[in-house]
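pls design
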């Protein structure tokens, strides 16, 4: 993490005794997860992130020499995805079979309706660094509907039935 300390805009949090976290500002964190050699291709590992800024867990996946970080919980029943199956660029939940693409986090097979929140990762000095907004780490699912979507649609009410 020596490179992270040298960035002038980075504030190192003193409350993390392992010195694994730094805050870019009050809305984004950088968290050192592990060394790149700690995970082989086709492997995944859950990491607990407990700091004064956030308390959550993420799932790190190494697939085809690329690293992907997601929420560690399935969008369906919030069960741990680390117990699931990782095969052919897909992650399948162990409980009910919800299936997500490894490269995007998008759901491809139900049950469930949301996509996995995806976080950025960087490699610095052979260490994998999670870079995420705190508000995104608190989300349990991601939709494809943009947050800033403005529509002109008016609510419609339909009453269906023949009565008596």
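designed seq:
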């Amino acid at each position: 993490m020596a490179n992270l300390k040298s960035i002038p805009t980075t504030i190192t949090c003193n409350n993390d005794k392992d010195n694994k976290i730094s805050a870019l500002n009050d809305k984004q964190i950088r968290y050192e997860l592990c060394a790149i050699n700690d995970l082989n291709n086709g492997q995944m590992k859950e990491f607990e992130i407990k700091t004064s800024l956030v308390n959550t867990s993420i799932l790190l996946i190494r697939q085809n020499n690329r690293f992907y970080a997601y929420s560690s919980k399935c969008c369906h029943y919030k069960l741990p995805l680390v117990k699931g199956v990782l095969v052919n660029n897909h992650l399948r939940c162990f409980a009910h079979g919800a299936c997500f693409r490894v490269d995007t986090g998008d759901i491809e097979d139900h049950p469930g309706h949301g996509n996995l929140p995806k976080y950025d990762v960087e490699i610095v000095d052979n260490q994998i660094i999670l870079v995420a907004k705190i508000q995104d780490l608190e989300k349990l699912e991601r939709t494809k509907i943009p947050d800033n979507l403005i529509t002109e649609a008016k609510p419609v009410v339909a009453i269906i039935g023949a009565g008596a």
